[in-house]
Design brief:
Keywords: Methyltransferase, S-adenosyl-L-methionine, Signal, Transferase. By secondary structure, this protein is α+β, with helices and mostly antiparallel strands. Helices cover about 45% and strands about 10% of the residues.
Length: about 450
Amino acid sequence: MRWLQVAIATVLFTSLQTGLFVRPDVGHRRPRTPCRAGDTLLNWIREAGGDGTVKRDVDARGLRGLVVTKPARAGDILLEVPLGMTLADGCEGPSEGAVAAGPPWSKQLPWNVQLALGVLARRKEPDWSLFLDSWPAAPTLPKDMEDEDLEEAQDEDFEVKAGGTLFWLEERYEDAFAAWEQAGAADPKIFWSEEEFRWAMAHVWSRCCRLDLEELGGIRRLLIPLLDMGNHDSEPSAVFDLGRSGRAVCLSATRDLQEGDPVTYSYGEHPNEHFALYYGFVPESNPYDHVKVSLTKVLQCLTLAGFPGAGDWEAARMEEVVRSGVAANSLPLRARSPPLGLLQALFALLPEASEATVLRAVAVACQCLEAEYPTTLKEDQAILDSPSSTLADGVLLLVKLRMERKKLLCSLSQTLQDLAKVFEESPEQAQAQLQELLASAQPEADDAMT
């Protein structure tokens, strides 16, 4: 058990990293033709005192997004947008600060509802129409899909979450309408339709950024012209923050860039399920993705697979595991990192378990979980690669989601099998590798979008 104790200490003293940004991806959809809306927006930004060396275009990968218009060095500012040109939730700072998007009567509503109502209120205002009219069609989200299409996710829990998101939206629309009625507001004279509200909410979910405005308003969610056209990357070419002046949002290069290179940044440290639900895309090689599984499910998999020692669980050891709380929690399986609690539980439950045995047990459980899907990884890839596919974008989104989960399970299974062999040949080297994997496990970000 010494290696487990060392692993626990390593994990406990690892600094937690949480995401600052929540933004959607538009670049993971089908390539589209270039749009000059970005050029018009940049001119608008310059007239207000901002500047930039980016434009909206199709990059070398065939993805629509932001690219640089001239070479840049790491640390160079690529885009500077004055705060007065951004819309924020409930922000009431000085005139140099972000503009409060929502109507005064919406201040007690959730942040995303405030922003959505603000978007609807300002769509026809000349000062904001250029920005808001630059948006493409709202992304296809699971909440809007039929039950038959949602089944393509091959995950009942995901279907329930998609339905819950729709129910939440309906309740928030009713809350907004009630707040408008209670305030006796003259603007708007006629309240927006539920369809308009859903449109605005989809764009808020898929376009907003989270940023600390410090003395100008603290933590706020912003809608930022032109910057919101950038694509996602877990290893981004840029980051954004409050500039040195404290009066503008600045997008800065994280590495040297050449003319035409894509300008990307992180939308947040979220699993694929979260991106699919709220942003309408599934990222490639997401280091924050995971598949949650219960200890009970893992034990069932090992028993069905005939894993040595499985099925004959000693009552005393099982009670000890239950008391530890592991059995009551969902355990996140990541592409390169097994959950520590699962390793501890299996070490206690499997008779005469060694490190290699425990790692192979988790690998077998991953194989079992993958085999339970109705389609194979190869079949899913064929669907996505088919040029004659007639499936809707929403269905293809769910096929990508389930495919990435299978790839994650395959990757973790292979990693653990390889590490088990190292344990048999060089235990000290294997312990160091395992500790590194456990320490690199990304903490779960706050996924609260509703």
